[in-house]
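Hi R.,

As promised on Friday, here is the backbone we talked about, encoded as structure tokens. Could you run it through your design pipeline when you get a chance and send me back a sequence?
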């Protein structure tokens, strides 16, 4: 997979993928969908880390992305082990965790929330089955 083809997803720690669509311009959903297609077509599993859950996408972008996720959920579940949100605010973190529980039940895949990027990386490594001293291998 050519990392140069990705703008809204950081693959520098692949198979840990970090979404970077916060502050994306209106109309970015077509590029986001193209990148998601590349991710689910790749044979290697991955974990998606979303560090900017409270960044709102434009209505049409959000609608297109949700439609793609709904239509392609079986393909997404075959490749993506989990979505992990990062939220430093404890009140917002609790709310995102509760939303994640509902989403996990609805879609049949883990939607988790943690307080720091470091926790997200550690959780992602565990979900991907990486182990070593302290339980994780840093790639």
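Update: got your reply. Pasting your designed sequence below so it's all in one thread:
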């Amino acid at each position: 997979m050519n990392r140069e083809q990705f703008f809204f997803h950081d693959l520098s720690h692949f198979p840990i993928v970090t979404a970077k669509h916060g502050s994306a311009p209106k109309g970015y959903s077509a590029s986001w969908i193209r990148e998601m297609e590349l991710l689910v077509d790749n044979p290697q599993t991955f974990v998606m880390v979303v560090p900017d859950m409270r960044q709102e996408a434009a209505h049409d972008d959000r609608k297109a992305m949700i439609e793609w996720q709904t239509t392609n959920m079986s393909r997404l579940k075959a490749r993506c082990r989990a979505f992990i949100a990062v939220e430093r605010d404890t009140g917002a973190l609790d709310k995102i965790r509760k939303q994640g529980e509902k989403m996990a039940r609805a879609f049949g895949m883990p939607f988790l929330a943690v307080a720091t990027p470091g926790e997200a990386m550690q959780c992602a490594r565990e979900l991907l089955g990486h182990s070593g001293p302290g339980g994780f291998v840093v790639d």
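One thing I noticed while checking it: The first strand starts at residue 9 and ends at 13.

Thanks again,
M.
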